[in-house]
Amino acid sequence: MRRRYWYSSLFAQVLIGIVAGTVVGIVAPRFGTALKPLGDGFLRLIKMVIGLVVFCTVVSGMGAARDMKKVGRLGGKALIYFEVVSTLALLFGATVANVVHPGYALDARSAALDSSALSGFMSQTRPESVGEFLLAIVPNTLFEAFSRGDILPIVFISVLFGYVLSHIGGRAASVRLLIEELGEVVFGIINFLMRFAPIGAFGAMAYTLGKFGLSALGPLIGLIATFYLTCAAFVLVVLAAICRWCRFSILRLLRYLKEELLVTLGSGSSDVALPALMAKLETLGCSRSVVGLVVPTGFVFNTDGTSIYITLAALFVAQALRIDLSVTQQLALFGVALLTSKGASGIAGAGFIALIATLTVVPTVPISGVALLLGIDRFMGTGRALVNLIGNAVATVIMAASEGELDRTRMRAVLSADPDPRAAGSPVKVS
Predict the structure, then answer these.
(1) Residue 313: how many CA atoms within 13 Å on its side-chain side?
(2) Looking at residue 128, what DSSP letter applies?
(3) 66 three-state secondary structure
(4) pLDDT tens digits, 106-149
(5) Which fold has domain 6-415?
(6) What is the pTM of this model?
(7) Which pLDDT belongs to residue 421?
(8) In sequence order, what DSSP letters do the residues of 325-383 get, joined into one string?
(9) What values do phi and psi take at 12, rounded to 5?
(10) Which whole-number Å values give the CA distances from 76 to 73, 294, 385, 399, in the listed order?
(11) Residue ranges per structural domain of the chain
């Protein structure tokens, strides 16, 4: 048997890329800033095929399904689950902000807050009505959603295709087989592109540290530490309790997804890990139909990290400006955040944009106060992306278990790190 060295694994290579990028960004910030195209290029390579991954997975999963009522029931349960857990995340962030009071460590009452720096974000924060949101799901043409990379319209198109294929039955067997084979090709492309993940992580980290530097963390280090500790507590308390109820370990799941988590850490975006996450959840024992429906919609509606950030950051700004919010005002803030935490999905810097949108509707805290967070948003965004990724992985396993479409034998074998090949056959290799 050929010996496999530690540095040959994707996890080790990405870790080396992150460390090297950090060193370059600190030691040679101008050079590190110039490496931005490396990170952006890798992100674009992955986003290039996300639409096809979602389409092939949803269509092949639904096309093979025999009970469309079950698919509809799954979608309804998933949306309820997303709303409940996202609400818990908002409560988590608000509770920590009220107990720890991180904003009082920074007195910004006399600071000159330049709201003009937020102008680029303000144009993206206009609240959408329910009608506008629903209309946005339906693309103008069949190919527009794929060209723009919007997840929800792609899911909409995929569900239509899968529904029709399942009803046509045997007459569409050749089409279904073609889409399944296309899916194998697309995942093969993903496997190839993931070889460039260490380079992408290197470029992204070098740019982040070179552009913003450790000096940007100084005055707000308390908020960053509070946010990451809050995220860790949410994962290890709330999500761990959900996993325990479903009889599996959150820590083993995190170990299983270590490559995807590290790629997300290096790039600062969970989008790059979406295709590999879908493949790994299938390998874990979740059915393709569940993975195809829950993961893409979860990336829009199940944003636990963003939810924690919105309430924690909003109350931080209020505390830094010495604005005492009443219980009624905080409840109003919470109610608006329930909507805005999902309204900016799919946009770069979605969490920061959602925060601005929240404070726009709740004028008690001036928008200019958000400028305090502009310099550290890149660091906060990484934490948001990590928790969003973990939350959607947990949600998929829970939904699969609730529908009786989770192969627990395979899951136990895979999470034990010593899988039985007969029980844990993988549809695609992602490492």
Answers:
(1) 33
(2) P
(3) coil
(4) 776 655 455 555 555 545 555 555 566 678 788 888 788 888 77
(5) Proton glutamate symport protein (1.10.3860)
(6) 0.81
(7) 39
(8) --HHHHHHHHHHHHHHHHHTTTSTTHHHHHHHHHHHHSTTS-GGGGGGGGGGHHHHHHH
(9) -65, -40
(10) 5, 10, 24, 11
(11) 6-415
